[in-house]
Specification:
Layout: E1 7-10, H1 20-35, E2 39-42, H2 56-67, E3 73-74, H3 90-102, E4 106-109, H4 113-122, H5 144-152, E5 158-161, E6 168-173, E7 177-182, E8 190-193, E9 198-199, H6 201-211, E10 216-220, H7 227-236, E11 245-249, E12 252-253, H8 265-269, E13 278-279, E14 286-287, H9 297-305, H10 320-326, E15 337-338, H11 341-354, H12 357-370, H13 377-387, H14 397-405, H15 413-419, H16 424-436, H17 443-457, H18 461-473, H19 481-504
The protein binds one RNA strand of 75 nucleotides through strand 7, strand 8, helix 6, strand 15 and helix 11.
Amino acid sequence: MTNKKVRVRFAPSPTGALHIGGVRTALYNYLFAKQQGGDMILRIEDTDSQRFVPGAEAYIVEAFEWLGIKFDEGVHVGGKYGPYRQSERRDIYKTYVDQLLSDGLAYMAFDTPAELDVQRAAILNFQYDASTRMQMRNSLTLSTEEVAALVAAGNQYVVRIKIEPNEDIVVNDLIRGKVVFNSLVLDDKVLYKSADQLPTYHLANIVDDHLMEVSHVIRGEEWLPSAPLHVLLYRFLGWEDTMPSFAHLPLLLKPDGNGKLSKRDGDRLGFPVFPLQWTDPKTNDISSGYRENGYLPEAVVNFLALLGWNPGTEKEIFSMEELIKTFSLERCSKSGAKFDYEKGKWFNHQYIQLQSNAELATLFLPVLAEKGVEAPFEMVEQVMALTKERVSFVKELWDQASFFFVAPTSYDEKMAKKRWKENSAALLAELATLLEGIDDFTAARTEGDIKVWIEAKEYNLGGIMTAFRLALVGEGKGPYIFDIIAVIGKEETLARIQRAIDVLK
RNA sequence: GGCCCAUUCGUCUAUCGGUUAGGACGUUAGAUUUUCAUUCUAGAAAGAGGGGUUCGACUCCCCUAUGGGCUACCA
């Protein structure tokens, strides 16, 4: 290990919305980099022109902004190692493809996809490698003249890495330790396609990581099988001494059944798998997002951080700063984690409680506006103080708080049957008279006066309060009554009592 | 099929040879409350199986099973 600066990258392919598993990978990269005082790079891997989806890149940038994951370099912020979009680095890759070719470490192959299909159908477990390459149409089997003629005639070709069999290739993984692969099981992977003059992921990835001086490659476990190929590529290019360290993260699995969490699971199981809502530009299908579902970005970050990593203590609530301080690759788990949406809800509940009343009121204002309610900000703040501990999401606040803003127009039948007695109307009328005489309408004052009154008359506290609640709320729920009337005020309180008496008799 | 990775309560996990195997989510029961919710307390709940190594294995090794990933001119 050298003492070179820590530089990590998150390198998504712009093929659609950013998957929540990708978000976690990016988060771990970020936490690691920031802890080490290093840089975080956003590189767009758009080497597959077929799968490019417009808008995906902008979505990725917006998602990280929302989550509070900041990049030091990248497609959206620039930097000294650009361009950060692989489609803009064609010439760079070509240089190294040519180098591998002239060093005899790669070769040109002219087999068409159709011809390869024929081989795959004919030979069980066909693999383009040392055992089969001499039967194929490539620069190893064709003469120099034939190759030149084919190229001159406009035939498309690919460049394949030439892997020698029977060599053990060691991948040192920071999470898993030494993993050994025999080169026999590796195939001569395509590195470059003449058709679009772009490299495949493997070559582009190694060239970019090297040129961008990436020190640590932290990525999903699905890349572990191709890690030996990458090690070989570093070696073939002469860069093995500065090869980055690898860390392969466990995958996020479906909450039910089997397999890794996929884009489709979200709406099938009723929770988002994307940070932000995403509309597919081709089909117009909408996939829900954490942001639109009412999640606080801090909660999503905290939740994701603990899915595959733990601090070794019993602390569960972590700010981004605390995560940066505490995170370590050594404490990442090795096995996949089933995605537990219920726990995610709990995290959001915790973060709602951590918000100030003013912050929550600001978040709640749009919901109020949607319902056509206008209310003074201070009042909304007071309502937040009384209701926030009851909810996990901002939008649930409406269920808990609507009666503060809108008087009940009907009364819950069950509740009325149970709580509205023969004498309720008379008692509430008496209560109204009492309240009318109180000028200082604070909870402390009204509570004191009402309790004195009830005691003096030897009334039943519960009976009166539940009927009172029915009049105020319309059903049997909500915070302390005296807090409610302090917020809605004397006039409104009296109006609601009168209305209940009129309607329920 | 081949290669690789993994395996502790339903779920996320702690344990780095000696513990009553701990915590959290969820769940169950109680308590508190004028209601509902919150909150609080308590409970149920786990080392895949089989061999070793060792005075002693959840922990180390092997085998089996199971789960997962990869096996494209996708990343």
